[in-house]
Design goal:
single chain, 203 residues, alpha+beta, HU Protein, Chain A, Arc Repressor Mutant, subunit A, 3-stranded mixed beta sheet, 3-stranded antiparallel beta sheet, globular, DNA binding, HU-HIG, DNA-binding, DNA-binding protein, histone-like, putative
């Protein structure tokens, strides 16, 4: 099985002498969930999907606890986890800041060399060009809701892909869903996910 990619224009700031260069970007076919992983692992082991999902959940909880305790986590064949912090700007002396002002910023993940080497052999296939459809805001919002009915979360990039629209339009759609209390935002920065609000009826 091959992964698909498409060619995308580089940002204007990176253009040289008016020449627009392109870069390749993976077109994700879908987002694998923990249930998917548990089901697949069960086919190559003697454990049931439920046992595997329970193990993966516990595995995740242990990693989080270790990181909270100030440890780094080395998963060897997978990669290396660590936590980054943030504090107020303009600090020039340790006397200017209290511990309460230092807070969690992000989780850093550094992929292992073994995983990188394994992925170098991946088969790539260019996505067949399709005529871009234009959906109304109502249609785009409905597509997002339908996607979330089948998948736990969605990213802005995924919304852009299946709605074939700009990031600006996608963020407008997601804000409308958030303001209508149908969707909630999880995470910050590049790690933002969106999911259906629990116990909220469609209006």
């Amino acid at each position: 099985m091959s992964a698909k990619y498409r060619l995308v224009e580089n940002p204007p700031a990176s253009r040289k002498e008016g020449v627009t260069e392109l870069h390749a970007r993976i077109v994700a076919s879908r987002t694998a969930t923990m249930d998917d992983l548990a089901e697949e692992i069960s086919t190559i082991s003697s454990f049931s999907p439920g046992d595997i999902k329970g193990l993966l959940t516990s595995f995740s909880e242990v990693i989080i606890r270790r990181l909270k305790n100030g440890e780094n986590v080395n998963l060897e064949d997978l990669g290396y986890y660590s936590v980054s912090l943030e504090c107020p700007k303009g600090v020039t002396s340790d006397k200017q800041i209290r511990s309460a002002s230092v807070r969690f910023k992000n989780v850093n993940f550094r992929c292992s060399a073994k995983m990188k080497d394994s992925l170098k052999t991946m088969t790539l296939e260019r996505e067949t060009s399709k005529k871009k459809q234009r959906f109304s805001p109502e249609q785009r919002i409905k597509h997002i809701q339908n996607y979330l009915q089948s998948n736990r979360t969605v990213t802005a990039s995924q919304c852009c892909a299946f709605n074939q629209c700009s990031h600006f339009s996608t963020m407008s759609d997601l804000r409308a869903l958030i303001n209508a209390e149908k969707v909630e935002k999880l995470g910050y920065g590049k790690n933002v996910l969106y999911m259906l609000r629990q116990n909220t009826n469609d209006r």
